[in-house]
Structures are given as C-alpha cells and as structure tokens.
Write a structure and sequence with these properties.
The chain is an all-alpha fold. Helix content is 67%, strand content 0%. The protein has six helices and no strands. 35% of the residues are buried.
Length: 99
C-alpha cells in the first residue's frame, strides 16, 4: 500500500460516489478500492459496504452477489487504517475484528 495525496484520494472518492449515485456499484468499487489502497480508511469501509449483504439489501441493489468474507476483510482494513465505523460494521456482519 502506497500512500496517496489527499487530493488524489478525494478525486477517487468523488468519482466512486458519482458512479454509486447512478447505481454503478461495481464501477464505484474500483475507485473506492484505489483510494483504499492509497491509505483511505473511509474508502476501505465503503468497499466493504459494497460486499455487505445488509448494506446491499438496504439500498436494493440487484444483480450483485454479497460476499460477507470480502466485506469483513475490507472492514478489517478500514479499522486498521483508523475508520471509526468499521468495528461496528464488523460486529453487525457477525465477523468481529479478529475472526
């Protein structure tokens, strides 16, 4: 993982958010993953949400398979990067921080 500038992370997040807003979750995920790889805790948590069964059901996404294991892995990454929401998301997923 190589740290990116905050400006680049913000650009990647904005592009991801724009795709997410029009329902392109898989496209948005690619931008969020790049921002997470650059050190963004928020982006890592957001990638986790794109795999989280509860989140996908809540936003009524069709055609995407949830992957609780991938969600947990991304939430753990987010927690390690300092995202304050990640531990709660892991608990809700039933994964816990160290499982």
């Amino acid at each position: 993982t190589q740290r990116m500038s905050q400006a680049l992370i913000n650009t990647l997040l904005a592009r991801g958010d724009a795709l997410f807003a029009v329902g392109d979750v898989s496209g948005a995920r690619r931008f969020y993953e790049r921002a997470a790889d650059g050190g963004s805790a928020h982006a890592a948590a957001t990638v986790g949400k794109t795999y989280d069964p509860a989140f996908l059901a809540a936003i009524k996404v069709r055609g995407m398979q949830p992957d609780p294991n991938a969600a947990a892995a991304w939430y753990r990454t987010a927690a390690a990067l300092g995202d304050p929401e990640a531990p709660r998301l892991l608990e809700r997923l039933g994964a816990g921080p160290n499982r």
